[in-house]
Design brief:
Elements (H helix, E strand, L loop, with lengths): L9 H9 L1 H14 L1 H16 L7 H10 L6 E6 L3 E4 L10 E16 L4 E4 L5 E4 L6 E15 L2 H6 L11
Antiparallel strand pairs: 1-6, 2-6, 3-4, 3-5, 3-6
C-alpha cells in the first residue's frame, strides 16, 4: 500500500484542493446509496490518519489525507477517449463505484448492456454503479474526462476493516 505518485506532486495537491467540494458531495451521495461502504471508507481514513506508518511515506500520506475529502481510497482519471465495454477490477462486486463526467462536449452516453440501459452522460453527470458486476462503456465527441472513484479491496484488508457486502435481493 502506498500513496500514488501523482498525488505526491504539487499538481496532485492542487487537484485535491480544487476538488474538495466535489469530492465531499460524492461522499454524501455514497453515504445515501451505500452507507456501509461509506462507513468503512471513513473508518479507513481514520485508521490511516491515526497510523500513517502503514505506508513507506507516512509524511506524504498525512499531507494527502489533509486534502482528501472522500471515503473512496482510489480514483482513476480517464481523459479524452471513449471507454469500451468493460468491468472494473479494482473493487469488490458488492461495492459501488462513482463515475463523474467532466469536459466540453454534448451527446455523451454511458451504456450498461446487461440491464439494457443507456444514460445521457454529459459533463456534470454522476453515476453510482456496481462496476465489477455490470459491464459498461462510455462514448462522446469532444474534450472529456471521467473521474472513477472506487474502493480498493486490498486497502480495506490491510487496515483490518470489515468488508461491507451487498444486502439486496
Amino acid at each position: 500500500m502506498c500513496v500514488s505518485a501523482a498525488l505526491r506532486t504539487a499538481a496532485g495537491a492542487e487537484f485535491l484542493g480544487a476538488a474538495t467540494e466535489s469530492m465531499t458531495v460524492l461522499a454524501g451521495v455514497l453515504s445515501i446509496i451505500q452507507p456501509d461502504l461509506y462507513d468503512v471508507g471513513m473508518a479507513g481514513l481514520s485508521r490511516l490518519w491515526a497510523d500513517p506508518s502503514v505506508v513507506p511515506t507516512p509524511v506524504v500520506l498525512r499531507d494527502v489525507l489533509a486534502l482528501w475529502s472522500t471515503p473512496f481510497n482510489g480514483v482513476s482519471v480517464i481523459s479524452n477517449r471513449s471507454t469500451p465495454l468493460h468491468r472494473d477490477c479494482n473493487s469488490r462486486k458488492e461495492w459501488m463505484d462513482m463515475l463523474v463526467a467532466l469536459g466540453m462536449y454534448n451527446l455523451g452516453n454511458l451504456t450498461v448492456p446487461g440491464v439494457g440501459i443507456e444514460f445521457v452522460y454529459n459533463p456534470g453527470t454522476v453515476v453510482g454503479i456496481l462496476g465489477k458486476v455490470l459491464q459498461h462503456g462510455a462514448e462522446c465527441d469532444g474534450e472529456r474526462a471521467c473521474l472513477a472513484f472506487y474502493m480498493r479491496d486490498k486497502v480495506q484488508e490491510r487496515l483490518g476493516l470489515r468488508v461491507p457486502t451487498y444486502h439486496g435481493v
